[in-house]
UniProtKB/TrEMBL annotation:
Belongs to the 'phage' integrase family. Residues 204-388 form the Tyr recombinase domain. Gene3D superfamilies: 1.10.150.130, Integrase, DNA-binding domain, Intergrase catalytic core. The gene is int_3. InterPro entries: DNA_brk_join_enz, Integrase-like_cat_sf, Integrase_catalytic, Integrase_DNA-bd_sf, Integrase_DNA_bind_dom, Integrase_recombinase_N, Phage_int_M, Phage_Integrase. This is Integrase. Keywords: DNA integration, DNA recombination, DNA-binding. It comes from the Bacteria.
Length: 409
């Protein structure tokens, strides 16, 4: 009895959602992955073993084209040629580093802002560098574990992102026909059995320091040398997000107006954010600018306002994405960088008479519904300036005794 072929049609493949292989016949399968992605595969027997040859994703390879490719592959098998090995000779398999660039280039246009691209590039370059020069078809579970095991318990949030990004890149390699078989970076049914389950942080509940302990902590922080300590102090003074400070450039600072203006593309809510700078924040910025300008003159390099503010002495690149978290670890502080925003909000609500909405504006949170936002013409900059000067004064006090004195004028 002849095997049934051409079982699928354009309508049925669009409707298919069940994970697994769906046969068209003659060794051609439409595979629905765990994430819903659909791809074509030609499965054949070679030297007694089943082999799987990727033919491309459904979005780029039509049913008719997939059948043509499968027909060509069947002919090569009949001629005693392994089509997978033949393709490798004709089309070299990219390395993980090259595939990462291909993936980021093809997806970055759809990402909300440029910081997502930088996060992908930085985390993979720092934590997955063992895979950079390895062909994607040679990466297995053991290779993935070499990347994840050293960081899985130490920096779980980052490790989880690295795993997800490796999975996405290796999925793209499979769809592009560069590798076959299961994705070694998949969690469910794979790494879940080899790595401990991660305790997820609930959004908005990052480990935070009670605000009454902040003046003593700030005294310890200011006594520490190094660029990371200065970066963290500036972050706390302005109740900012880590990425906002880490990627800040001189072009965003209005020295005369004592303002830091973060463009919309760098903000989580995709809206420009103006922050009033306290005297202590201005002292930090002035000292860093003078140091960088002096260094530039010494080595004959042009100082630019487009450059990053928080760099290592003599450097020009933005600090590591984990710089402040590593500093907190060295200080044995059981808090996260993001947690200082919670400390600020608690201080405003519990120890001052400042309006709660001022704190939310400073944190760049949405205040009110869409209609209210549309009609609001002011970001209460001058009121927020008084708030942030009071916050800076509190942080530089000898102890928490001034808590009750921080009242709105």
């Amino acid at each position: 009895m002849a095997r049934q072929v051409d079982r699928l049609n354009a309508r049925s493949i669009t409707a298919l959602s069940t994970q697994g292989r769906h046969a068209d016949g003659g060794g051609l399968y439409l595979i629905v992955d765990h994430n819903g992605a659909k791809r074509w595969s030609f499965i054949f027997r070679w030297q007694g073993k089943l082999k799987e040859m990727g033919l491309g994703g459904l979005s780029s390879v039509s049913l008719a084209r997939a059948r043509d490719l499968a027909k060509e592959a069947r002919a090569r098998v009949a001629d005693g040629v392994n089509p997978i090995e033949e393709r490798k000779r004709d089309k070299p398999v990219p390395t993980f580093g090259a595939m990462t660039k291909i993936y980021i280039d093809s997806h970055s246009a759809s990402w909300k802002n440029t910081k997502h691209r930088q996060q992908w590039e930085n985390t993979l370059a720092q934590h997955a560098k063992l895979l950079t020069d390895k062909p994607v078809d040679q990466i297995d579970v053991a290779e993935v574990l070499k990347v994840l095991q050293p960081i899985w318990s130490k920096i779980p949030e980052t490790a989880s992102r690295v795993r997800g990004r490796m999975e996405a890149i290796l999925d793209a390699a499979k769809v592009s026909g560069h590798r076959t078989g299961e994705n070694p970076a998949t969690w469910k049914g794979n790494l879940k059995h080899l790595l401990s389950s991660r305790k997820r942080l609930t959004r908005g509940h990052h480990a935070a320091l009670p605000f009454a302990e902040l003046p003593a902590f700030m005294e310890r922080l200011r006594a520490r040398p190094g660029a990371s300590a200065t970066q963290l102090e500036f972050l706390i003074l302005n109740a900012s997000r880590s990425s906002e400070v880490r990627l800040a450039s001189w072009s965003e600072i209005e020295f005369d107006e004592k303002l830091w203006i973060i463009p919309a593309e760098r903000m989580k809510m995709a809206r420009e954010h103006r922050l009033p700078l306290s005297p202590r924040s201005m002292e930090i910025l002035t000292a860093i600018r003078e140091r960088q300008q002096t260094e530039s003159q010494v080595i004959g390099r042009q100082w630019s306002e487009k450059g990053h503010i928080f760099t290592q002495p003599g450097g020009t690149t933005a600090p590591s994405i984990n710089a402040t978290e590593m500093l907190l670890r060295r200080m044995k502080a059981n808090v996260t960088t993001h947690g200082f925003r919670s400390s600020f909000r608690d201080w405003v609500g519990d120890a001052t008479n400042f309006d709660r909405d001022l704190a939310e504006m400073q944190l760049a949170h949405q205040v009110g519904d869409e209609t209210e936002i549309a009609y609001r013409r002011s970001d209460a900059l001058q009121k927020r300036r008084k708030l942030m000067e009071a916050w800076a004064s509190y942080l530089t006090s000898d102890d928490g005794s001034k808590v009750g004195q921080m009242k709105r004028n």
